[in-house]
Amino acid sequence: MSALLLYPEPLAFLIEAFRKLPGIGPKTAQRLALYLLHAPREETEALARGLLEARAKIFFCSTCGNLTDVDPCRLCQDENRDRAMLCVVEWPRDIIALERTGEYKGLYHVLHGVLSPMDGIGPADLKISELLARVQEGTIREIILALNPTVEGEATALYLAQLLRPLGLKVTRIAHGLPVGGDLEFADTATLSRAFLGRHEI
Q1: Which of 26, 29, 55, 195 registers the highest number of CB atoms within 10 A of its CB?
Q2: Could you give the CA distance from residue 62 to residue 146 in angstroms, rounded to a whole number?
Q3: How many CA atoms lie within 13 A of 171 on its CB side?
Q4: Is residue 62 one of the residues assigned to a domain?
Q5: 44 & 116 share domain
Q6: What's the CA gap between 176 and 47, in Å, rounded?
Q7: CA nearest neighbour of 103 among 9, 29, 194
Q8: Residue 197 domain-assigned (yes or no)
Q9: List of residues 6+ apart from 99 with CB closer than 8 A
Q10: In this predicted structure, which of 5-14, 103-112, 140-149, 169-178 has the lowest mean pLDDT?
């Protein structure tokens, strides 16, 4: 008999909903659901409100593709940022990781993934045409490719370099102070800082 059948239906539904989240196993899902049932009502209502509000009000910036509640996002609007530099990342969470280092003061562009023929992800599935459109505006002088050091990340970086170099841009790749196969999201600030400062032209 499934363990979920031992619970009342609404509780089983809640546990199953938590299990669908990344990194949440059956025991953690059960622990979270039971915690919320015993938590003060205001706490569970605040969580529910937060989820609904985030879903309703958060969207992708039409300029860079970052998560935002205003368009363009606050980073794109910031006049103090260096508009001649554009850092290309895979996901919005990578921007947060890089901003924590305090090393980079330019603009960003989010691809929303990497090339992965095995998964059927090609150039048309990423925000590459939007990247080229931004470059053609003429203000960008250097593109920094801050993609994860995975096979797919490396392939995407090489593909972008081949597209961008003929446009007369300086194309650099952040140095590999990051472990191969690792994610920017989980790297410590010092490692990310070194990787940024040691970027090289490709």
Answers
A1: 195
A2: 20
A3: 18
A4: no
A5: no
A6: 38
A7: 194
A8: yes
A9: none
A10: 169-178
